[in-house]
Structure formats: structure tokens, C-alpha cells
Q: What sequence folds into this?
């Protein structure tokens, strides 16, 4: 059995009872299924098998080193969005030639590090950034491989906060300025233009906008080739969504079928940068019931020992994550507010959820939390980062220990 499913009335991870693992390691706890990560990677990689491609995992979704090592072992490369993510990729064993460096607002120090390492490509966000990279590369006597991030003004039909390819968004260079920029890059001694890049947004389930974006990039690559700029790759970014409701899932085969026809015409290498698709369903957040109350005239509250500090997606994007009892008790479901312990009303993990009887100390799991979960955690209310456990190859192990109170105060000079 791979991934998360109920076995003999108990939630299990790759066949192992979640309750046993939580008893050993405490809560709040992030728990990952290695088998689910392998399955997701395999399904995406197979969908593109007929065309030369590289899967650059977007580290922003989850950059815990053991997870990165697992993905690297499967053949993944890396998409880093900051100096810290470049560092994570290197520590997990990725070669600089496997790293693409993306990001709006890269600092001079971060750019210099990427230039010095000789990463696969730096995705340029503006004319000014191109000039800065050129100067840094010339100062080092090297040539930096660069791609231009295109803002194609295409609506990916997703939540406004995670939509990135519209003209009003801060990302990329508006389409009509890209060809002139690429031609100018080819004349700069410190730069070698190698690609075009786009990232429309995240949690995309309708692949049609991705097909349009592929067409735009393919046309662009042809246009600049005719002007003498020979690119090597097209980077379609990430964005493929998962089934948070357990049903509406984007399909890797449909994704490949949508983008490949245009890409194939160019003959260029294809890069994709999936984050969520590879990790989201492979991780859960396990919490414990700290209190319950149901007074007449108020909702029934299930108060957990975990909340927005561990998983902020419901509060930030109105994201709906399924919430289940790890060992459901018999009895009728009751509409409930599943809330965390923080001093904020926004600290609600699930609103108006139908949940059966629960008692204090029962374990509760928030599903599909493997991507943009731990990485967005905070120490608000002086809470400690949770532990992370990975089940893989028939065993489970702590891949990040829970923060201690000493960890919390380590950097303070009192
Ligand atoms: N490449 C670039 C340039 C990106 O900006 C992103 C995500 C990805 C790849 C990976 O996208 P994915 O395949 O994961 O959709 N915190 C938000 C998601 C923010 C995504 C930002 N960029 C959330 O929890 O929904």
C-alpha cells in the first residue's frame, strides 16, 4: 500500500499506522510517504517520456534535505528561488549544472553565487537584472547561462494569490519586450542566452492556459532563432495542481498532451518545474485534539495542538484541506470548526467540517500538506517548528527533529 489510506479503521502511511508513528515522535508532526513521492514523480516523468525533458523540482514546495535526496535519486534536477534554496540543493547533492535559479528580486550576492557556481540557467526577470548578471560574470571572467522569464499575460484560472502570468503580476518580462531583450543578451560578453521560461501560476487543473503558454514560448524561440539567437531549452515552469477535494486532479498525461505539440516543433529541450504535484499528496500534518467545546448557540470547536504556524495555506489562500480523524470513533458526524491554538480567529484549519466524535488527545490528520506546508511554517506565538518523519523502503525515520526551546532562542543576544 502506498500513500495515505485507511487500513483496519486506522489511517496508515505506506501501510504503517500513523498513530504508532505519532506516538513515537509526538505532534504536531509532518509525515511523508516515500512511495507517494516516487509514484507522483514516476507518473509525471512517464507522461513526458517521449520527449527530451528534465524535471526540476521546485524547492519552494518542500526543501527538507532528505526529501530532496529522494527526488534526486529518482532523476530530478532542482529549481531554486533563493540563495538558501541553492544551498539546500547543493547540500542535497545536486550539481550546479542541475540547478535553475528563478526568482523576482534576486540580490547581487545571490546572483554572484549563481554565476560563480555556473548553474544551468539563471532566469532573468528584467533588463536591469540582465545587466547586473553580465557585469558579475565579466568580473569573474566567465559566461553565465541565462533564460528570460516571459510574462505572457495568460490567466491560469487559479487563486489570485498564486497567479503569476498576468500583466499585472510582478513576474517576468512582458511578452513584446522579450525578443529584443534576447537579441541584446546575445551581444553581451558575460551572457549566453539559453532559454525562455514561463510560470503561469500554481494549483492549475485546467491545462488549456498551459497549452497557450507553450505555444507563445515556441513562437518566441522561433522568432529569435530567425534573428540568430539559438536557444537550448524551453522552461514551462510548474503549476500542475492536485486533488485537494480528493477528486478534481490535473492529469500529467493531459498536461503533456497540452504542451508537447508546440514544444516538439522547436526541437528544444523541455524543462518543467513541478513542486506541488510531486509533494502535496505525499505529506500530512498530524495534530492532536487539545480541547473540544460545543456550547448552545456556538459552533462545535475542535481545538488542535497545530494550526497556522504549521500550515498556513487555509488562512492565506482559503485553501480547503481534507481533515480526518486518524482513528475515527463510531458515531454521527457533527459540523465542526477545526481550529488551532494560536491567538487569532484566522487560525482555522477547517470551517464547517462534518466530523465524528472526538476526544481530547485523539489524533487528527490534515491531508495533502506535503507541499507548501512545513516550508511556510513560522515561530509565531513562540511555537517550535514541528518534526518531520519520512516513511520509505519499509521503515520510518525522523528527517528533521522538532525544534527545542533552545533552538528558538539561539540567535538572540539578550
Ligand atoms: N516555478 C516557479 C518559477 C514558481 O514560482 C513556482 C511556484 C513553481 C515553479 C512551482 O509551482 P507548483 O508546481 O508548485 O505549482 N504557497 C502557494 C504556492 C506558491 C507557488 C509559487 N511558485 C500555495 O501554498 O499554494
A:
Amino acid at each position: 500500500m502506498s500513500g495515505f489510506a485507511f487500513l483496519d479503521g486506522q489511517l496508515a502511511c505506506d501501510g504503517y499506522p500513523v498513530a504508532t508513528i505519532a506516538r513515537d515522535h509526538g505532534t504536531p508532526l509532518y509525515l511523508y510517504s516515500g512511495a507517494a513521492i516516487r509514484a507522483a514523480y514516476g507518473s509525471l516523468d512517464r507522461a513526458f517520456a517521449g520527449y527530451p525533458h528534465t524535471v526540476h523540482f521546485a524547492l519552494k514546495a518542500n526543501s527538507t534535505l532528505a526529501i530532496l535526496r529522494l527526488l534526486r535519486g529518482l532523476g530530478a534536477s532542482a529549481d531554486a528561488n533563493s540563495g538558501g534554496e541553492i544551498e539546500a540543493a547543493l547540500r542535497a547533492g545536486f550539481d550546479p549544472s542541475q540547478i535553475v535559479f528563478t526568482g523576482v528580486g534576486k540580490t547581487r550576492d545571490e546572483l554572484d553565487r549563481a554565476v560563480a557556481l555556473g548553474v544551468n540557467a539563471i532566469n532573468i526577470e528584467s533588463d536591469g537584472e540582465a545587466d547586473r548578471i553580465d557585469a558579475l560574470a565579466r568580473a569573474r571572467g566567465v559566461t553565465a547561462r541565462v533564460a528570460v522569464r516571459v510574462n505572457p499575460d495568460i490567466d491560469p484560472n487559479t487563486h489570485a494569490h498564486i497567479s503569476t502570468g498576468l500583466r499585472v503580476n510582478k513576474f517576468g518580462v512582458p511578452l513584446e519586450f522579450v525578443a529584443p531583450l534576447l537579441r541584446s543578451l546575445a551581444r553581451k560578453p558575460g551572457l549566453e542566452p539559453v532559454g525562455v521560461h514561463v510560470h503561469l501560476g500554481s494549483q492549475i487543473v485546467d491545462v488549456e492556459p498551459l497549452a497557450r503558454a507553450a505555444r507563445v514560448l515556441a513562437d518566441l524561440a522561433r522568432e529569435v532563432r530567425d534573428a540568430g539567437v539559438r536557444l537550448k531549452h524551453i522552461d514551462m515552469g510548474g503549476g500542475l495542481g492536485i486533488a485537494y477535494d480528493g477528486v478534481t486532479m490535473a492529469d500529467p498525461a493531459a498536461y503533456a498532451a497540452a504542451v508537447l505539440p508546440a514544444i516538439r516543433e522547436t526541437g528544444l529541450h523541455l524543462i518543467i518545474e513541478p513542486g506541488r504535484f510531486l509533494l502535496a499528496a505525499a505529506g500530512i500534518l498530524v495534530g492532536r485534539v487539545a480541547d473540544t467545546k460545543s456550547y448552545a448557540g456556538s459552533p462545535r470547536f475542535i481545538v488542535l495542538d497545530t494550526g497556522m504556524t504549521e500550515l498556513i495555506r487555509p488562512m492565506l489562500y482559503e485553501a480547503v484541506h481534507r481533515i480526518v480523524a486518524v482513528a475515527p470513533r463510531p458515531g454521527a458526524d457533527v459540523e465542526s470548526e477545526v481550529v488551532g491554538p494560536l491567538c487569532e480567529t484566522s487560525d482555522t484549519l477547517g470551517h464547517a467540517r462534518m466530523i465524528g466524535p472526538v476526544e481530547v488527545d485523539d489524533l487528527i490528520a490534515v491531508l495533502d500538506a506535503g507541499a507548501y506546508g512545513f516550508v511556510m511554517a513560522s515561530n509565531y506565538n513562540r511555537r517550535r517548528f514541528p518534526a518531520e518523519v519520512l516513511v520509505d523502503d519499509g521503515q520510518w525515520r525522523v528527517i528533521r527533529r522538532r525544534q527545542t526551546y533552545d533552538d528558538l532562542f539561539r540567535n538572540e543576544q539578550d
The chain has a mean pLDDT of 96. Residues 58, 60-61, 79, 102, 162, 199, 202-203, 237-240, 273-277, 313, 317, 372 surround LLP (CB under 6 Å). The chain has twelve helices and 21 strands.
